[in-house]
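Listing S7. Sequence submitted for prediction.
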Amino acid sequence: MTRARPLRTIAAGGVAMPVLGLGTWRLFDEACERIVAEALRIGYRHIDTAEMYRNEQAVGAGLRAGGVPRADIFLTTKVLPEHLAPADLRAAAEASLGRLGVDYVDLLLIHWPNPAVRLADTMAALAAAKRDGLARAIGVANFPSALVEEAVRTCPEPLATNQVEYHPYLSQRAVLAACRRHGMSVTAYRPILKGTIGEDPVIAGIAARYGATPAQVALAWLIAQDGVAAIPKTGTPARLAENLAAADLALGTDDIAAIDRLARPDGRYVDPAFAPTWDPA
């Protein structure tokens, strides 16, 4: 089923970012190409990838197969933490454009902070990439609130978003507050916990009352928040349409409050050895 009307957008560094997008982590080759093309066919206009995902070439093929004009697509990619020295960042961004087969991305992010590279130098290179037309907007990913503040302070250009793990079990109060102070959005990855969010009885109960799926409830809760977008990943066409329909689900205030209360100290699932020091849960 093709979506009848465009998705709502939020402001992100001077560009309009659709509140729901397709994450592509662990999607590869023809399967990745097919799901990206199908997502565009049914109404997605926000596609997220990364140098780290090793699928930019397949994502680019999916963009071309989807038949949607490039100007109508919001495309994000991310630079590996080992490529954050200025010359390396520029080369990595250009290589990503080549693999994607595009002249620019709409959003170019630092994928993870790297304490071995001075953040001010990285921010200067990221801003230069934007000014030179490689990206329409720039931002960061996996930055706790203190690093958001440092990134904003040292970047010569406005930052559009901070892409972080965010779902009902993980409060991102400090990150949300820091981003809102500086006019940044927050983009939620892993928003439905790899589809396991339905195991939560609170989410399942709310979903039953609305005649919705648990994934739709979790996504609707996220995108109801000021300046928050979500990029659920799926390799299943039926799930694509299901996730997209979350844009039309309006939760009541009591249900939103009930989901707010699900956050817990052990709610973080993405915590590699190279991760920064996170904000307290």
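Caption to Listing S7: primary sequence and predicted structure tokens for the chain studied. The two ends are 39 Å apart (CA to CA). The CA atoms of residues 197 and 214 lie 6 Å apart.
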